[in-house]
Amino acid sequence: MPKKMNILPFYNKIVSLTRKYYFYNNFKLSDTFSSRINLIFFHLSFILIILRKKRVNKEFSQDIFDFFFKQIEINLRELGYADTSISKKMRLLIAIFYDILIKSMNWKYYEINKKKELLINYFEHNTENKILYNSLVDYFNKFTLFLEDISLNSLLKGVFNFDYKDK
Protein backbone atom coordinates (compact mmCIF):
# COMPACT_ATOMS: atom_id res chain seq x y z
CA MET A 1 0.00 0.00 0.00
CA PRO A 2 1.36 3.44 -0.85
CA LYS A 3 2.68 5.45 2.07
CA LYS A 4 0.60 8.51 1.25
CA MET A 5 -2.87 7.89 -0.06
CA ASN A 6 -5.55 10.49 -0.70
CA ILE A 7 -7.73 10.22 2.41
CA LEU A 8 -10.28 12.84 1.31
CA PRO A 9 -12.60 10.41 -0.58
CA PHE A 10 -12.52 8.08 2.43
CA TYR A 11 -13.32 10.99 4.77
CA ASN A 12 -16.12 12.20 2.49
CA LYS A 13 -17.66 8.72 2.43
CA ILE A 14 -17.70 8.50 6.24
CA VAL A 15 -19.20 11.98 6.56
CA SER A 16 -21.85 11.12 3.96
CA LEU A 17 -22.82 8.04 5.98
CA THR A 18 -23.57 10.26 8.97
CA ARG A 19 -25.95 12.36 6.90
CA LYS A 20 -28.27 9.49 6.01
CA TYR A 21 -31.91 10.30 6.64
CA TYR A 22 -32.59 7.20 8.72
CA PHE A 23 -30.39 8.39 11.58
CA TYR A 24 -32.58 11.42 12.12
CA ASN A 25 -35.95 10.25 10.80
CA ASN A 26 -36.07 6.53 11.58
CA PHE A 27 -33.71 6.28 14.58
CA LYS A 28 -34.80 9.65 16.00
CA LEU A 29 -31.31 11.02 16.66
CA SER A 30 -31.10 14.79 17.12
CA ASP A 31 -29.51 16.39 14.08
CA THR A 32 -26.78 18.18 16.02
CA PHE A 33 -23.03 18.64 15.76
CA SER A 34 -22.63 16.26 18.70
CA SER A 35 -24.70 13.49 17.12
CA ARG A 36 -22.95 13.81 13.78
CA ILE A 37 -19.48 13.85 15.29
CA ASN A 38 -20.27 10.78 17.39
CA LEU A 39 -21.62 9.01 14.33
CA ILE A 40 -18.33 9.81 12.59
CA PHE A 41 -16.44 8.47 15.61
CA PHE A 42 -18.38 5.19 15.66
CA HIS A 43 -17.96 4.64 11.91
CA LEU A 44 -14.29 5.57 12.05
CA SER A 45 -13.70 3.32 15.07
CA PHE A 46 -15.19 0.30 13.36
CA ILE A 47 -13.15 1.03 10.25
CA LEU A 48 -9.89 1.42 12.17
CA ILE A 49 -10.61 -1.83 13.98
CA ILE A 50 -11.12 -3.65 10.67
CA LEU A 51 -7.97 -2.05 9.22
CA ARG A 52 -6.05 -3.41 12.19
CA LYS A 53 -7.51 -6.88 11.58
CA LYS A 54 -6.52 -6.62 7.92
CA ARG A 55 -3.03 -5.66 9.05
CA VAL A 56 -2.88 -2.23 7.47
CA ASN A 57 0.24 -0.45 8.64
CA LYS A 58 -0.11 1.73 11.71
CA GLU A 59 1.26 4.79 9.94
CA PHE A 60 -1.67 4.76 7.53
CA SER A 61 -4.17 4.44 10.37
CA GLN A 62 -2.42 7.38 12.03
CA ASP A 63 -2.68 9.38 8.79
CA ILE A 64 -6.44 8.69 8.76
CA PHE A 65 -6.77 9.79 12.39
CA ASP A 66 -4.73 12.96 11.76
CA PHE A 67 -6.75 13.83 8.66
CA PHE A 68 -10.11 13.37 10.38
CA PHE A 69 -9.16 15.47 13.36
CA LYS A 70 -7.66 18.18 11.19
CA GLN A 71 -11.00 18.36 9.34
CA ILE A 72 -12.87 18.53 12.63
CA GLU A 73 -10.63 21.38 13.75
CA ILE A 74 -11.29 23.22 10.49
CA ASN A 75 -15.04 22.73 10.99
CA LEU A 76 -14.85 24.08 14.53
CA ARG A 77 -13.08 27.18 13.23
CA GLU A 78 -15.78 27.61 10.58
CA LEU A 79 -18.41 27.37 13.34
CA GLY A 80 -16.72 30.34 15.00
CA TYR A 81 -14.85 28.75 17.89
CA ALA A 82 -11.91 30.81 19.13
CA ASP A 83 -8.38 29.38 19.21
CA THR A 84 -8.42 28.88 22.98
CA SER A 85 -11.72 27.04 22.96
CA ILE A 86 -10.73 24.93 19.93
CA SER A 87 -7.82 23.47 21.86
CA LYS A 88 -10.08 22.46 24.76
CA LYS A 89 -12.79 21.14 22.43
CA MET A 90 -10.27 19.09 20.42
CA ARG A 91 -8.87 17.48 23.58
CA LEU A 92 -12.40 16.57 24.63
CA LEU A 93 -13.29 15.17 21.19
CA ILE A 94 -10.10 13.12 21.01
CA ALA A 95 -10.87 11.66 24.45
CA ILE A 96 -14.41 10.79 23.33
CA PHE A 97 -13.10 9.21 20.14
CA TYR A 98 -10.59 7.02 22.00
CA ASP A 99 -13.25 5.98 24.49
CA ILE A 100 -15.55 4.94 21.63
CA LEU A 101 -12.69 3.19 19.85
CA ILE A 102 -11.63 1.19 22.90
CA LYS A 103 -15.19 0.18 23.77
CA SER A 104 -15.99 -0.67 20.14
CA MET A 105 -13.15 -3.17 19.91
CA ASN A 106 -15.36 -5.78 21.58
CA TRP A 107 -18.60 -4.76 19.85
CA LYS A 108 -19.26 -8.15 18.26
CA TYR A 109 -18.94 -9.87 21.64
CA TYR A 110 -21.36 -7.58 23.46
CA GLU A 111 -24.95 -8.53 24.15
CA ILE A 112 -27.55 -6.13 22.76
CA ASN A 113 -28.05 -4.36 26.10
CA LYS A 114 -24.33 -3.63 26.40
CA LYS A 115 -24.34 -2.24 22.85
CA LYS A 116 -27.36 -0.06 23.61
CA GLU A 117 -25.67 1.17 26.79
CA LEU A 118 -22.61 2.18 24.78
CA LEU A 119 -24.72 4.12 22.29
CA ILE A 120 -26.84 5.75 24.99
CA ASN A 121 -23.66 7.22 26.48
CA TYR A 122 -22.87 9.10 23.26
CA PHE A 123 -26.11 10.28 21.75
CA GLU A 124 -28.19 13.11 23.09
CA HIS A 125 -31.48 12.12 24.54
CA ASN A 126 -34.10 13.66 22.34
CA THR A 127 -36.95 14.79 24.58
CA GLU A 128 -39.48 14.88 21.74
CA ASN A 129 -38.85 11.40 20.34
CA LYS A 130 -37.37 8.36 21.98
CA ILE A 131 -34.20 7.35 20.18
CA LEU A 132 -34.55 3.88 18.72
CA TYR A 133 -31.39 2.30 20.11
CA ASN A 134 -32.31 -1.21 18.93
CA SER A 135 -32.33 0.08 15.36
CA LEU A 136 -29.05 1.90 15.90
CA VAL A 137 -27.50 -1.30 17.28
CA ASP A 138 -28.82 -3.18 14.24
CA TYR A 139 -27.30 -0.54 11.95
CA PHE A 140 -23.84 -0.86 13.49
CA ASN A 141 -24.07 -4.67 13.58
CA LYS A 142 -24.74 -4.64 9.83
CA PHE A 143 -22.07 -2.01 9.23
CA THR A 144 -19.42 -4.11 10.99
CA LEU A 145 -20.41 -7.19 8.97
CA PHE A 146 -20.23 -5.11 5.80
CA LEU A 147 -16.72 -3.96 6.72
CA GLU A 148 -15.53 -7.53 7.17
CA ASP A 149 -16.59 -8.40 3.62
CA ILE A 150 -15.45 -5.29 1.75
CA SER A 151 -12.16 -5.26 -0.09
CA LEU A 152 -9.44 -3.27 1.58
CA ASN A 153 -8.85 -1.30 -1.61
CA SER A 154 -12.52 -0.24 -1.89
CA LEU A 155 -12.62 0.72 1.75
CA LEU A 156 -9.51 2.87 1.65
CA LYS A 157 -10.50 4.61 -1.57
CA GLY A 158 -13.93 5.41 -0.18
CA VAL A 159 -15.66 3.68 -3.09
CA PHE A 160 -17.98 1.51 -1.04
CA ASN A 161 -21.70 1.79 -0.65
CA PHE A 162 -23.28 0.83 2.61
CA ASP A 163 -26.96 1.50 2.79
CA TYR A 164 -28.82 0.30 5.82
CA LYS A 165 -31.90 -1.79 5.32
CA ASP A 166 -33.86 -2.72 8.39
CA LYS A 167 -34.84 -6.34 8.22
Low-confidence stretches: none
Overall 3D form = globular
The total of helices stands at 8
Main beta sheet: strand number and arrangement?
none
The fraction of residues in strands falls at: under 5%
Helicity level: 55-70%
Report the average pLDDT across residues: 86
SSE order, as H and E? HHHHHHHH
Distance between the termini: 36 Å
Structure description:
The chain has helices at 8-18, 21-24, 33-53, 58-78, 83-104, 112-120, 133-149, 152-157. The protein is globular and about 40 Å long. With 167 residues, it is mostly helical. Helix 3 packs across helix 5 (83-104) and helix 4 (58-78) crosses helix 5 (83-104).
Describe the structure using short key phrases.
167 residues, 8 helices, mainly alpha, globular, single chain
List the helices and strands and how they pair.
Elements: H1 8-18, H2 21-24, H3 33-53, H4 58-78, H5 83-104, H6 112-120, H7 133-149, H8 152-157
Helix pairs in contact: 1-3, 3-5, 3-7, 4-5, 6-7
A few lines on this structure:
The chain is 66% helix and 0% strand.
